[in-house]
Amino acid sequence: LNNQFLLTQGAGASSRGALLSPLSAFTGIHTFISKQQKNSHPMFFQAFHPAGSPLAHCLFLAPANSLESPALPDLLDGLTKQIGGRGAFNLVAEVEEEHPAFTALRQNGFGIFARQRMWKVTQASNSSGAGSWRPVLERDRFGIHLLRKALVPGQVQQIEMEHSDTHEGYVFRHDREIVAYAEVRRGPRGIWVLPFIHLDAEPFDKAIADLLARLRPRSNRPVYICLRSYQDWLQVALEDLNAQAGPRQVVMARRTSLAVKVEETRRSTVAARNAEPATMQLPEPQAHFSEHSVVNKR
To answer: Of 92, 141, 183, 188, which one is least surrounded by beta carbons within 10 A?
Structure first.
């Protein structure tokens, strides 16, 4: 249920993550097991939630017949509660629209917020890549933020909130402005790339070729480009680079927590100010006034 993890780490990484469940606070990999019912096998659901991230990612659900199990809603409810308690706002899953998992997830509170397609590249072009892309620096964060705001639909931004950590990646500048950013994740099995490329980055076919030249794809460690529907105009450039298109997928999310507006009332005090006693000459006997402490309440 997560391309980035599968394509960079391999399918075996999920099993290793389950063995390290006692260290989930450090690895971010959480494995949940359903209560075994009569004449049924337990179900396993694994999710990845890096500490401090607003997103948690579904990794896998097993066995395959769990999609039809009446215990699936309870398992997802427990998972949602646990992940939400860790600070995640949404639980995200990637699945092919024709797969039975799509129906099962949709019936259990997951909604579509984006569509995408994975493109596999095993060999880079002869482009040198010199002088176009460079690694992300701390000072690039604001420019990347502006680029994402300009390209990513609001619905997607609400789910995939920007994280405070600077991800590994590359930026492409034009007239001193960042017009392209590629978020990169590396693993022993492959390299995953999520591009954000503005039309001002044209000729974008050359820009993509330069980026792939930097990443150096190989047959045993390909580069996988995650092309979202709002960037699908890049598929022509990928076809020209002999990239292999994967099946179309939907990206789904389920809320793990809701924002609640809380009105906070604060009471503050100021240092007491003493009123000076005043004496006035009146026909009657002299009037005396006592001192009063003044307290502002807000």
So the answer is: 188
